[in-house]
Write a structure and sequence with these properties.
The complex is a heterodimer of chains A (251) and B (366). Chain A is of the alpha/beta class and 251 residues long. Helix content of chain A is 33%, strand content 30%. Chain A contains seven helices and twelve strands. Classes of the chains: A alpha/beta (251), B alpha/beta (366). At the A-B interface, α2, β7, α3 and β8 of A face α6 and α7 of B.
Chain lengths: 251, 366
């Protein structure tokens, strides 16, 4: 059974000039244990896919379906999608002064536990786990007391996203250009975190501009998105070919 | 608007009689009450009831820590008031005249324990004088449940330091607090102000930087929920060179609440090298919140650094999406965000009480 199943998805972004169609019949299936990379030129709809699946306001689903473990996603509120096991690593993580990282993470893990009918973790154990995770991603544990992403560098924000991924253990991770703005050392840390997350039970959709990330997170499938549709699928060699030739030969 | 009049004739106290601008005090006060500038300060709150209440019977504030070495408490004014301003504060001057006595606190040595002031009702005016080089922590709270007023003057001698925490979290039909702070050279003053709306709450704060290199910090968190009102009027004057002031005021206004903020920075001629900053942010929640905010700058000298800004907004949709994308439901996410907005301005020794009252829970250890 597929983990994520997106079928003939059409979606528009809301603009001042009215809805602009972006996704024009996108179909994608991710099975447990698979990593799918989605590549494509600017404006092809990569981030729109991540946003529509996670329920960001400002998008309209025109037609099509998307399910996670067989449950429909598109009618749900963002928090309900997260409670089903969907996780979006943001391209631009938001700064929230006044809400500490630790408080945010605890609120998140408690909400997810409640939704699954599980016991909420003990605070002391939880804090220890978070500190250890932070350390393993080269994040100073002192940052946990600071506001969410407040004053973080671009690299710290992305590592914080990966820390949340490892902590919340979703069923499906959507990584929206998590590699953008990272230097090579930070890229390795982030990739190592994603690889630690990978398992036979979960899935990863990796949205990226560059082949570079795929040197560190080896995908099972590579898809090329263009004008709102997947126009080519293949294995890792497709990414290398794109790197060599650009997107023009496909579009 | 009808002219404002004082409730009954007041007697000019001895210490005031010699002031050249006092003249016939009742007349001068009534002129000040009705001047256009002063009426502007009362544009969004009805002044009549507050003026009428200036002569209500007063009780002593409860004062703790006054028996420490270097602290003296008296009941008279033996010198003209530092920071005395008839035009700015005619109601506060009227209260001084109506009061049968005042509370004068002289602090001549740094204290180990804070001075604690609690206003259980309509309390007598206080004058607090902090001697040169002395450090003082002042904890002030109001728990009156009836109409109440407070008026406090604080004078900081050169290089004195005062850390003042103030909670006005009580529910009363009306509450007015006048605070005047006068800083001499090199003095430091910090106010952590935490305030909830009440039937009609008014806070007037007048800070006068009257010596070179004085520093003042005002941090305030306010929450006005339901049919409550809060009106804050802050005047900060830089009269001497190289002073620094920073004001950060966050207010949440929810569900029909009404909040007014007016922050005026006045940089006098000759106050070169002044650095003055003011930021007022307002978060509207629920239906029918009313927010009036006006930052004002008057600058009469070159070579100053000055910034002021006011924002009125609702909860950031980006932040809300970020939290909800982690499984936190919308209501809980909104609560976290509004708490975070206020928490940025809740600090100091009275923070825990303020967090409980304004944010709904104590600070989490992490």
């Amino acid at each position: 059974m597929s983990l994520l199943n997106v079928s003939d998805l059409h979606a528009s972004v809301v603009t001042d000039d009215g809805p602009q169609p972006i996704l024009k019949g996108l179909t994608l299936e991710v099975k447990p244990g698979e990593v799918h990379a989605i590549m494509g030129p600017n404006g092809s709809g990569k981030s729109t896919l991540a946003n529509v699946l996670s329920g960001r306001p400002g998008y309209i689903v025109d037609s099509g379906t998307a399910t996670l473990n067989g449950q429909g996603l598109l009618e749900l509120e963002p928090f309900e999608r997260a409670q089903l096991g969907l996780f979006l690593a943001f391209q631009y993580p938001v700064e929230i002064p006044g809400v500490s990282n630790m408080e945010f993470l605890k609120a998140s893990i408690d909400s997810l536990a409640r939704a699954r009918g599980e016991e909420q973790p003990n605070t002391a154990t939880f804090m220890k786990q978070v500190r250890e995770l932070a350390g393993s991603l080269d994040l100073d544990p002192a940052f946990l007391k600071r506001g969410v992403n407040e004053g973080f560098s671009g690299g710290e924000k992305k590592r914080n996203e990966i820390m949340q991924l490892l902590l919340l253990q979703p069923k499906l991770a959507l990584l929206d250009e998590t590699d953008s703005g990272l230097d090579i050392d930070a890229l390795k840390v982030v990739a190592e975190g994603v690889n630690r997350y990978r398992s036979a039970e979960n899935g990863v959709v990796l949205i990226t501009h560059y082949q570079r990330l795929l040197d560190y997170i080896v995908p099972d499938f590579v898809h090329v998105l263009s004008n709102g549709k997947i126009i080519e699928s293949g294995d890792k060699s497709l990414a290398l070919e794109l790197e060599a030739k650009g997107y023009a030969w496909l579009t | 608007m009808a002219d404002l009049t004082l409730p009954t004739t007041l007697a000019t106290p001895d210490w005031l009689a010699d002031l050249p601008d006092a003249g016939s005090l009742p007349e001068v006060l009534e002129q000040a009450l009705n001047s256009p500038a002063h009426r502007e300060r009362w544009k969004y709150t009805k002044p009549g009831p507050f003026v009428a209440a200036t002569q209500h019977p007063m009780i002593d504030p409860d004062i703790g820590g006054e028996s420490q070495n270097g602290v003296a408490l008296n009941q008279s004014i033996d010198a003209p008031l530092a920071g005395f301003d008839l035009d700015q504060a005619p109601e506060a001057i009227a209260r001084l005249c109506y009061a049968d006595h005042v509370m004068t606190l002289d602090v001549s040595a740094s204290t180990d324990e804070p001075i604690v002031i609690n206003h259980a009702g309509n309390t007598r005016p206080m004058l607090i004088r902090v001697a040169a080089g002395v450090s003082l922590t002042l904890l002030e709270s109001a728990d009156a449940s009836d109409d109440a007023q407070q008026s406090i003057w604080i004078d900081l001698a050169p290089n004195a330091r005062v850390e003042h925490s103030r909670n006005a979290l009580n529910d009363a039909p009306s509450h007015w607090q006048y605070l005047n702070v006068h800083l001499q050279a090199g003095a430091h003053y910090q106010l952590n102000n935490h305030v909830a709306g009440c039937g009609s709450r008014r806070q007037d704060i007048h800070i006068i930087m009257d010596g070179q290199g004085a520093e003042a910090t005002l941090v305030s968190a306010g929450k006005v929920d339901g049919k409550m009102a809060l009106d804050q009027q802050v005047t900060l004057e830089h009269r001497q060179p190289r002073g620094q002031s920073k004001q950060t005021i966050h207010n949440i206004v929810a569900n029909g609440g009404k909040c007014t903020f007016n922050g005026r920075i006045h940089i006098h001629e000759g106050a070169a090298g002044t650095d003055a900053q003011l930021s007022n942010k307002n978060l509207g929640m629920g239906e029918h919140a009313t927010i009036n905010t006006k930052p004002e700058l008057e600058i009469y000298t070159d070579d100053v650094s000055c910034s002021h800004g006011a924002t009125v907004g609702t909860i950031s949709q980006d932040a809300l999406f970020y939290l909800t994308s982690r499984g936190i439901d919308r209501t809980a996410a909104e609560a976290l965000l509004s708490q975070g907005f206020l928490r940025q301005c809740i600090d100091g020794p009275l923070a825990d009480q303020a967090l409980t009252a304004l944010v709904g829970r104590a600070r989490e250890e992490s």
